[in-house]
C-alpha cells in the first residue's frame, strides 16, 4: 500500500489552495491516499511521515498567515523530524525580490530539524505562468517517483 501524503497549504488569496486541490485530485487518481489540510495545525500533521507543502509567499517573503503558526511552532520546538520526507510547491511573483521566499523558509525550517527534502522544490512565477495547476502537474512526478 502506498504511503499517505499529507498536503499542507498556506495561502493568502487562495491560489496555493487551488493548486493543492488539483494535486490532491491527481494523487488520488494515481492511487495515493491523501490528507488535504488548509492552514494545518501542528497536532494534525507532526506525526505524518510524508508532506507536500503548497504555499504562496506573503508580504516581504513570509509564510502566509494561515501556515506561519505551524512553522513557527516547528522552528521553536526541540524536534527530531528525521523520519519526515517532504517536498514544496511555491507560488510567488518575480516582480518581488522576495520571490518564493516562503519556499526557502519551509525548506530551511524542516531541514534544520532533520527532515529530508525529496526533490527540488517547484517555484511557480504567477507573473509568467498562467496555468499554475499545469505547472504543478508537470512537476508532480519529480515528487512521486521519490516515494515509490
Automatic annotation (TrEMBL):
Sequence ranges assigned to domain Flavodoxin-like in this UniProt record: 5-144
Cofactors named for this entry: FMN
Pfam assignment, any one: Flavodoxin_1
Keywords: Electron transport, Flavoprotein, FMN, Transport
Superkingdom of this protein's organism: Bacteria
GO molecular-function terms, A-Z: flavin adenine dinucleotide binding; FMN binding; oxidoreductase activity
Gene Ontology cellular-component terms listed: cytosol
Record PANTHER family: NADPH OXIDOREDUCTASE A, NITRIC OXIDE SYNTHASE-RELATED
Protein name stated in the entry: FMN-binding protein MioC
Native source species: Volucribacter amazonae
